[in-house]
Write a structure and sequence with these properties.
Layout (H helix, E strand, L loop, with lengths): L8 H16 L10 H7 L7 E6 L6 H4 L7 E6 L6 H13 L4 E7 L3 H12 L7 H17 L5 H19 L1 H8 L4 E7 L6 E7 L10
Parallel strand pairs: 1-2, 1-3, 3-4
Antiparallel strand pairs: 4-5
């Protein structure tokens, strides 16, 4: 049996971004999507990354990162808002499955972010449990505006970064794994039009965040 080697957080990040680059350029390899991989992963899973993304139908992680079965442990909520179930799922992916990377994946034209902005401007909040989603996004919008960051992409980056910080503030399990080098947590902003994922936040990685263009 071939020994499975867990990549470092940096290696996992680079592997993920290489897949996104293939997707952007229209040259996906569709790895680990055949019958052999299905049989290989049936007994157990060993994902190299946990992706916590927005539930938007255009944000399918295995597609935009060109991965296959057993590669990604995916958790999704509208606006990537994090409750206890999400935190438990992320802790499971990192501490039980041993994934060395957690990705918070947001995107432009996010309905949850737009709804939070509208609620602050006109005072009208959606009903039902949608309201809870909007209220969890609102602090990010307020923080962005307080810092003079009012453009949509700036507000989105603030929300992604806020989510990264929230995960590490609320989960001792994740924070300890980052502190001892076993886990990296990054925030990526996905562009719907060109398919690219841009780094906007990073904890526990060597990669620097690119300067805003």
């Amino acid at each position: 049996m071939t020994e499975i080697t867990t990549p470092t957080p940096q290696d996992a990040f680079e592997l993920l971004m290489a897949g996104n680059q293939r997707f952007v350029t229209g040259a996906p390899e569709h790895p680990n999507q055949d019958a052999a991989r299905r049989a290989q992963t049936a007994p157990a899973q060993n994902p190299f990354a946990v992706v916590f993304g927005c539930s938007d139908s255009r944000l399918a992680a295995e597609i935009i990162f060109d991965r296959g079965l057993g590669d990604l442990f995916v958790v999704r909520t509208a606006g990537h808002v994090a409750g206890t179930e999400v935190l438990g799922s992320l802790e499971f992916g990192a501490s039980v499955l041993g994934a060395p990377l957690i990705v918070v994946l947001g995107h432009d034209s996010c309905g949850a972010v737009a709804a939070a902005c509208s609620a602050l401007e006109n005072g009208q909040t959606p009903g039902g449990f949608v309201r809870d989603v909007v209220e969890r996004v609102t602090p990010s919008v307020l923080a962005a505006r307080a810092a003079g960051r009012v453009e949509p992409e700036e507000i989105l980056a603030e929300h992604i970064g806020h989510t990264v910080d929230l995960l590490l503030e609320r989960s001792r399990v994740l924070a300890e794994r980052v502190a001892d080098g076993r886990l990296g947590v990054v925030g990526l902003s996905y562009r719907l039009a060109d398919g690219s994922a841009q780094l906007v936040a990073a904890r526990g990685l060597d990669t620097a965040i690119p300067a805003a263009s």
